Amino acid sequence: MTVTSTTVPDDAIVATDLHGRPDHLARIRAAFPDRHLLLLGDYVGRGPDAPALLAALRREVRARTATLLLGNHDQMFIKAFHNPGRIPPWWAQWIEPVCVQYEQWAVPPQQDAAWLSEHTAHWAHTADGRTYFSHAAPHDPHDPDGRYSMMPAHLWATPHREVRHPLGAAVTHAVHGHTPTHLITGGRAGRPLIWQDPEGRQVTYLDLAGPDSDLVAVLDLTSGQTRVLRAAP
Fold first, then answer.
1. Percentage above 70 pLDDT, the chain
2. In which order are the strands placed within the sheet that holds 215-220?
3. Given pLDDT bands bounded at 50, 70 and 90, which one contains residue 91?
4. Closest to 33 (Cα-Cα) out of 53, 13, 16, 15
5. Which residue ranges does the record assign to the Calcineurin-like phosphoesterase domain (predicted)?
6. C-alpha dist (Å) from residue 122 to 4, 90, 136, 181, 225
7. What is the C-alpha to C-alpha distance for residues 206 and 193, in angstroms, rounded to an integer?
């Protein structure tokens, strides 16, 4: 069962929205071979090879070199197999192309869905509590693990449409994926976005359009700097 929250190393490399792109994970690992990875969710859906990406993530988790957060696509994937009678029809339609990717794969999708449920957290923070991480937005403090909402804010909210839930006074920096940065700014794709939320804290968005781009953004918690990597051709 997905845990509510977890703590991540202060020197982690943060990335998000790999969406069935094992080449993105390989590029990140090549650039940072000895660093712990914090991945902000959306491992399945939209991309070409979710089974291969999840196989690589299993190896990372087994080696304790990565921490995984849950994304909205992962939530749909898990619920499609564990609560099939309680999902909207469009979720069922979405899951079909993901299942097709498993037709030539030894691990069935149900097994990967169960594994994701057991090895992801809803949100995370650094040990000092100053940096907060979730897939999409701050969680609802009255529903921290999303059990009372089909589409909880920390998995589904977008910064240009929904009001952000408040974070604790100790938090000075929040980091998210989910919404491609060019949809927030109206500008060109390919750049991380850094802005201030209504409470005055720094917010970093790292999604560069996931499977539709050969670029992947990372945040180095040691330096506080973002970097854009290109997947190998």
1. 97
2. 66-68, 37-39, 13-15, 215-220, 225-230
3. confident
4. 13
5. 14-179
6. 5, 23, 10, 21, 24
7. 7
Task: Tell me the residue range of the domain where 64 lies.
Answer: 3-230
pLDDT for the residue numbered 122: 97
The residues, any chain, with a CB within 8 Å of residue 29's CB and separated by 6 or more, are: 37
> How much is the mean pLDDT over the chain?
92
**Contacts by 101-106 with C-beta closer than 8 Å and gap 24+?**
101/20, 101/48, 101/49, 101/50, 101/51, 102/51, 105/51
Helical (H) or strand (E) element with 111: helix 109-118
| Mean pLDDT along residues 208-219 | 91
Calpha distance 15→76 (Å, rounded): 20
pLDDT-derived band at 233 (thresholds 50, 70, 90) equals low
* H or E element at residue 75: helix 72-82
Q: Please tell me which residue, 233 or 156, carries the higher pLDDT value.
A: 156
Range of lowest pLDDT (40-49, 80-89, 167-176): 80-89
**What CA–CA distance (Å, rounded) separates 176 from 134?**
6
Separation of alpha carbons 9 and 63, rounded Å: 15
Quick count: other Cβ atoms within 10 Å of Cβ 181? 23
Cα 153 to its chain centre, rounded Å, is: 13
Residue 186 one-letter amino acid? G
**Predicted TM-score of the model (pTM):** 0.94
What's the number of domains the chain is made of? 1
Instruction: Provide the CATH number for the domain around residue 112.
Output: 3.60.21.10
Give the amino acid at 66. Answer: A
Q: Is the separation of the CB atoms in 89 and 61 below 8 Å?
A: no
